[in-house]
Amino acid sequence: MEQGYLLLPEAEQHLSAGDEATARAMASRAAAIGERFAEADLIACAHHLEGRSLIQEKRLNAGLALLDETMLAVVAGELSPIMTGLIYCSVIGACEEIHALSRAREWTDLLARWCEMQPQMVAFTFSCLVHRAQIMQLSGAWSDAKAELRRVCERMPQDVPAGRTPAEAFYQQGELHRLCGEFSAAERSYHDAAHLGREPHPGLALLRMAQGRTEAASAAVLRVLSATAKPLDRARLLPAVVEITLSAGDLRQARQACQELETIASEFGTDVLQAMAAHARGAIELAAGEPRAAIGTLRQAFEIWRRIEAVYEIARVRVLMGQACRSLGDDEGGRLELGEARVVFERLGAAPDLSRLDAIDKLSETPHGLSRRELQVLLLIATGKTNKAIAAELFVSERTIDRHVSNILTKLGLPTRSAATAYAYKHGLL
Fold first, then answer.
1. Domain residue spans in the chain?
2. Which residue has the higher pLDDT, 82 or 20?
3. What dotted CATH number matches 366-430?
4. CB 350 within 8 A of CB 179
5. Which of 48, 263, 331, 339 has the largest count of CB atoms under 10 Å?
6. pTM confidence score
7. Mean pLDDT estimate for the chain
8. CB 259 within 8 A of CB 240
């Protein structure tokens, strides 16, 4: 029986190194030994390692089936308290990694009830609080999520050794501070997470973007992406890469990141990954002046986010849909989508998103008479780019940009590009 337990850490090491086949084979041997000695803890841990190996091999259905089988033993109370806590946390982590959020939500609820009956299991109690906070944030209960994370971050350093759980708690706290516009607090939390060994990006890069430091944000998130190998780890970075590079006006890099995200979503097939990819694709289509295509793509993301009750993501998609409606001349549809998003942002306390909505409303009220593409060209002119550089960035001919620039100057009644840049700054278009 001891030989079976000795196989488990070796299997874990192979799994971490990306050698899923060897990890699965060793876990299978451990499970067979467990069956021979009727050792429930060994069987459960081995099966859960087999399941995680299958998931990393992109065999999601088989992997999730093994995790579900393992959780049946957990829920039935067949395992020791220590193994029960370990399996709970590992399975929830695996579900979150592949964005199987419905399962993660279900197992987190069960973990919370188990922790209430196991007050001596301090480490698992804190893990439970972090998982619960993540589910609360997804569901739009930001105040409750903040309170849970505050409990963890204030007490954990004294009660639990440094490791993944405390680092993840500080990172998640930073995310909520950032989304609420509490930038100084977010900075501290991200730095605390980094001190405990957790990569602070993409959250810290998104913070830099929100602070107006787009170049620093782009350099940081692309640097981390280049050093990240596993597809699911890259999938956590790619939506931020799209958002930041779009903000920097780098459509080429945004498209490249989106294509990779779409490939990963296709390979793993989970709804949330597909929603992330559609969300990114819709944002790119909108930025490229293709609002009709964007509407259809964003609707796909909207339906998935709504199905899993991802409140904040629903609102973010509605902002993009509202902008697309306006670009197509449907001002009423645009007001409806943006108004619904505003209600959610106000309830959540998402101050930066409310500021962006205010800017969108201000832009729509500005009597410049420019089309969306002309406005996009004007903003690039204001950054100092030449017509040739703008044409390359927007994937059109230089002659097309020459025509857009001429139309912009005519519509605004301005003599030069410099005057157009001054107009953009004066009217808050940047």
1. 1-111, 366-430
2. 20
3. 1.10.10.10
4. yes
5. 48
6. 0.77
7. 87
8. no
